[in-house]
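step: validate -> pass
step: tokenize input -> pass
step: predict -> running
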Amino acid sequence: MFHIYWKPSSFYLEDLAYFSPLFRGMDNSVEMSGDLRGRINSFKGDNLVLKYGQNSHFSGSFDLIGLPDFQETYMYFNI
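step: predict -> pass
step: emit ->
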């Protein structure tokens, strides 16, 4: 079980290129904050804020139940 309180912070998508080449050359930044907790099969996020560029913004909460089997996972979002 994990509980992560992610303080407001930012990162560049280019940093994710270490994990996936899809992000190579992307110099845009993402701002993120929120409270993440649970286990992989019951994953929850509260007070999540994601900002990308000038006009993209997500604020809300979610519950994911059933991972890692994506086809059988229930997703609940409050946005």
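step: describe -> The chain has a mean pLDDT of 92.
step: cleanup -> pass
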